[in-house]
Design a protein that fits this description.
about 230 residues, alpha/beta, 9 helices, globular, binds pyridoxal-5'-phosphate
Amino acid sequence: MNFFRPEKLTLSLRSNIERITAELSPYGCKLIAVSKTHPFSVIRETYEAGHKIFGENKVQELTEKKVVLPEDIEWHMIGHLQRNKVKYIAPFVSLIHSVDSMKLLQEIHKEGLKNNRIISCLLQIHIAEEETKFGFSEEEAMETIHSSGMESLTNIKICGLMGMATNTENMEKVRKEFRRIGTFFNKLKKEASGKNVEIKELSIGMSSDYKIALEEGSTIVRIGSAIFGSR
Ligand SMILES: *Cc1c(COP(=O)(O)O)cnc(C)c1O
């Protein structure tokens, strides 16, 4: 990792965070600064600029960063999560955005129990055209929430949905995908219930599409390159 950072970067980091935070504020939307691939020093600079919520997409990178950075950082897991790695993040993770199976939910519950905490989760919904992206269909998500095994998962909380739009320049297509997950989100908010289900967060929007996501009801955006520059 390169520890030399010109002063200019510090300044642009700070102004990017301030600008994006101001854009989100009328919507009451939260910002996750996606720090994947960026060194500790960059996260520390962002932290010192006053931002304390970070997202990572790999368990190993997340845990390495967690141990050396300030205790009061809120860490979000936003990438595909394998069941055998849940144990490494269960003690501290604030929100897992990328839950895509009942088996993963069961594992998160098990690790939550061991750590004596309730772990907040979002169900990832597959909204993009690309096959490579993970997630439930709407029907599968609905079935999972209402399945008989759900009530016994006392150490998880399902707080909402996450989605990633197709990687395209066609913003009308992106809007359609966000609108669809937004509609499903509103339906679940009304209909879904259970001790460990409280649908209130919709995690949609990244650097290229967060302005559209805001208009379509996003409550959490996950932004990397628009803050830190390209990876
Ligand atoms: C990398 C990543 C982001 C942020 O992407 P940018 O285009 O850099 O803003 C958001 N969500 C997920 C799941 C990611 O992996």
